[in-house]
Amino acid sequence: MRPSRRREDDDDDDTQETARWNIPPFWQRLNSFFLFPFQTEPLIYATILALCSYLLTLGFFFSMVVGIGLMLAISRYAFKVAALASRGITDSADYRPHMVDDDWKSLPWKFFGVLVVHGLVIGWLSHASGAWERSAVCSRPLRFLQR
């Protein structure tokens, strides 16, 4: 019969495992958090996305595709930055491809799905309650249709 491990041994292993992570408290890293967008890689990425946002003016269908693409690109990068920052990596030069988990690739799609479902529910509720017709924002532009 093997001796069973005690609960204290498990706690000691957890303590040793977390002791390897040397992450300072967030209030000591607050300045570097707000300076993150001014690092080279995030600044270039933000500039490219800002230039791509000019494509939103090319028509309704094309702007929908570009808008969804921009939302997915921005949310994917934001999820990656947040996940790596939670591991203590706040410098974009320290990002490596092996650090990115494969599960993170589906997060923007899940986020997009939640936004679509939320928007549909809110739209249905406003239509069902009649708030859409009573809304000053929505009814004034649509008055030309009532003639």
Tally of strands: 0
Query: Radius of gyration, Cα only, in angstroms?
Result: 24 Å
**Binned strand content:** under 5%
Structurally, how many domains make up the residues? 2
Largest beta sheet, briefly? none
Provide mean pLDDT, rounded. 76
Which spans have pLDDT < 50 for at least 5 consecutive residues?
Answer: 1-5
**What series of H and E elements makes up the topology?**
HHHHHHH
| Molecular shape | extended
Number of helices: 7
What is the helix content? 55-70%
What is the CA-CA span between the terminal residues?
89 Å
Please give a structural write-up.
With 147 residues, the chain is mostly helical. It folds into 2 domains: 29-100, no CATH class; 101-147. Helices cover 61% and strands 0% of the residues. The chain is built from 7 helices and no strands. The longest helix is centred in the middle third of the chain and has 27 residues, at 60-86. It is extended, with a radius of gyration of 24 Å.
Based on the model shown, name its key terms:
147 residues; mainly alpha; extended
Quick summary:
The protein has helices spanning 7-19, 30-35, 40-52, 60-86, 107-129, 131-134, 136-139. It has 147 residues and is mainly α.
Which secondary structure elements does this structure contain, and how are they paired or packed?
Layout lengths: L6 H13 L10 H6 L4 H13 L7 H27 L20 H23 L1 H4 L1 H4 L8
Helix pairs in contact: 4-5
